[in-house]
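Could you help me review a protein record that somebody else here produced? This is what I was given.
***
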Amino acid sequence: MENMHITKDVKRAMLDILDHDIVTGKTGSTPEPTDGDPNIWNELQDIFLDPYYAPLLAKDVTNLPQTLVITSELDVLRDEGVLYAHRLKKAGNKVEHFHSKGGFHGETAFIFLQGSLNVNRKIVHFIKEHI
């Protein structure tokens, strides 16, 4: 995977949103963008920039309802969740971020695991408190 579906200019424009320093806690951890294929980007940009597909990349994340963001340590989407929670907070939204240490993508379906129980309890508690 060479990340060729996004051009260098688009990657640079998104650096403030996709700041690896937020995830790693280390300054200077965001890599220099490499160039991508503009033909691929032109074909896919409407999908990738659709806020329903990629809410992290939405143009405006202000005035959103109170949000619970759950990330899991072993989830390939963990970093996007961390960045999304950070971006929502930075935009002035009320956000709870729950990180499941040792958790994995889809763990809520495995109700016999303690991690799943912890995540599901957090979801139920959030709903009872805010809806």
Observations:
- The chain has two domains: 1-56, 60-131.
- Residues 24 and 66 are 25 Å apart (CA to CA).
- The longest helix spans residues 114-130.
- The longest strand covers residues 67-72.
